[in-house]
Amino acid sequence: MATKSAPFLRLWVAIGTSALVGLGGAQHWIARDDPLYDYLAHLAPTPTTLSRHLLSREELQRLLPTNEQPLAELARWKLGVSPNVPSSSVVLVQLRQFGYPEGSDWRTATGDYRVVGAWSLTPQALLEVVWSDARRRTDPRFGTVPYATLTLRTGEWRWQAGYGTLRWAGGYSGGLLVNDEMPAVPYLRVQFPLRLPLLGTWQFEQFLSQFEQDGQATWWGARRFERDFGTRWTVALAEAFKALELPTGAVSQLVPYYLYQKWYTDASRGSGWFNYLAEVGILYKLNVQDRVYLFWLIDDMRAPTAFGGVSATPRKVATLIGARLHPAPNTRLIVELVRSDGTRTGGVYDASGHAPRYAYYYKGLPMGHPIGANRIGLYAHAEHQTGRWLYTIDYTTLRRFHSYRPGARGYQLEAALGYQMNERSLVTLHYRSSYLRDAGAPDTRAGWFLQLTAQF
Fold first, then answer.
1. Are 218 and 357 in contact (CB under 8 A)?
2. Does the reported pTM lie above 0.70?
């Protein structure tokens, strides 16, 4: 086994000697708690930016002003555009107040806060911390520090050590492999381009996290490769694992995770200690703004005998296909179809008969796409900004992939009308309607609420 693995070891050790030339920009959605949204809202306050709508990296970069304000330079440094962090300290505050009519089904809290602090430590080091109860307002599983990260650039390498959530590629509705709709975890992360003979330059990213689950240490890691082919096509390859233990930990971060699992899964250890997932993504650029994309995830790759597998674990897959379009000025339309299958013993992300901690979940929430297992979902998002007005519609419909497995089915709808009163405040009227059922009577909810957003 050692002889066969040598080429793979040499390849992955070569990662440590590669140089960075920049970050890829195919379909990189900015995680919802990233301070970049706060910087953008202060630099270019519009109904869209004040609403903190999810943006991709290239969309956010396009909206940033081109002036030399320290905050703009800070944001561009984070995006890999500016060479240095400006010497400055920043504190930004956002407050939201909510009003509900009598008997509203959506009453949760009267308000929430978000405070962002950023401090440049050196021209190549930035510390950012976010305090917010916005997510905790609706889900107690989330904390009040969703983001605390130190970012360091050394030449062409980018390093991060922090506490927060990550989001990789995928669609507006979520990433299949790494998604931000889960509570924050501590992590170490590195990004750089990897130059391979005959294969060209690929953008590379990898992170490793350890967190407590059911009172025990649990490991989570992922790596991805991405490359543009011409001006239209982008291909992304990624793999991830969740492990109940991590023997010879340094080796696990140098070799492909699939081989690491195969080498260390033996009779004495048994199965169900290392949950492996892999993803392939293809994106086609229709023009400067519009994209169509396909992401395909496979869970439990121990099954195929072509790769030396002998396990009877059934293969499980998830697929996301979508389009991000701009049919008119200041208008964005996103349509996505997401499908995740399952078996009688478990679906995508599930434990499949192993210990619950083995499942690709944290605090009961999927670490991948929020649709979870055994679902077919259609997601649509439309927004249009005209002057001070913003119109938004979000619609999701869900049904089961296999009827013999439980799972909510139905629809969720939200329509919003926002008006920017001045440079720093926005008032938005929301209407939400939901009809979901699993077993028994359906859960039907509908109601209005008013939201006032102010930033300082």
1. yes
2. yes
